[in-house]
């Protein structure tokens, strides 16, 4: 299953070679997975003939689907993904209620409406993942020290609360970790490297770390909590910090809704923030190289990609201390998921749980 997720469709012969097993054993394993509907033969319009090439196998998108939900400042996002990791649907809507029960009700309403719209009723729902900004207060990560705007979420058992109000199995994970999952599965990281760091500029700043295909969670499920390196009472490279900087300059902005239209005329403010944020993120990149040795860094955020690209362009590699094991400057890319990474990754949590079990 992991090979098929990593490289796409493969013939039985190729899979047997990849996994160093006999053809007969591979046939038994694949027959079992086919019977359970977890994999499928790649559809083809060609007739079956003796000379036809072997039919590749792939992960079956119809094996089930999962839901992900995430809160940004003034905005709620919900995403549906299929078992193969394909994004079925993604929606966003204004939302600014701090009560987690109200959030649960809105998520339930949205996921049902999206399931009906996409003809998913009767299909297997694998579960609901929720990305939460804030460090963990327990080893399993279900209680979290959430950001101030989600103070009503702080310290409570979110898994139990959401399972009671949504009615499905729930996964709770830090939003930087969910963004990392999305980049790994949907953004193509798993095809480029097995170890990577995703830096999320959201409510605060956090890092999701993927090591050999698994999330590095730490003893208290708080690995990657780099936000603690930036005191809350000082400027920090986060989405909320940019919004505050714009407001201090006179811009009437309170959320990411219609961001581009609202910030028109404040380009100099945004440019100055980008330059400052780049200088703050550069040490994180340098420390990440030393501690993790990732194949790639990804910058993810609900901010427009043009801002993230400008940020990467202003990182000063010349000031870094790069070890001899790194040939050239580190690879730093900008997410291609247009700000939806944390939500899509939350939807991937139930699927990822089956992949690493």
From TrEMBL:
Coiled coil: none annotated. Pfam families: ROK. PANTHER family: BIFUNCTIONAL UDP-N-ACETYLGLUCOSAMINE 2-EPIMERASE_N-ACETYLMANNOSAMINE KINASE, ROK (REPRESSOR, ORF, KINASE) FAMILY. Belongs to the ROK (NagC/XylR) family. This is ROK family protein.
